[in-house]
Amino acid sequence: MKVDRLWTGARIATLDPARPGLGVIEDGAIAAYEGRIAWVGPVREMPGLEAAEKADLEGRWVTPGLIDCHTHLVYAGNRAHEFELRLAGASYEEIARVGGGILSTVKATRAATADELVAAALPRLDALIAEGVTTIEIKSGYGLELDTEARQLRAARRLGKERPVSVATTFLGAHALPPEAEGDKDAYIARLCAVMLPSIAREGLADAVDAFMEGIAFSGGQTARVFEVAKRLGLPVKLHADQLSNLGGAALAARYHALSADHLERTDEAGAAALAKAGTVAVLLPGAFYFIRETHKPPVDLLRRHRARIAIATDSNPGSSPLTSLLMTMNMAATLFRLTVEETIAGVTREAACALGRQAEVGTLEAGKWCDLAVWNVERLAELPYRMGFNPLHARIWRGR
Question: Is the pLDDT of residue 236 over 90?
Answer without folding.
Answer: yes
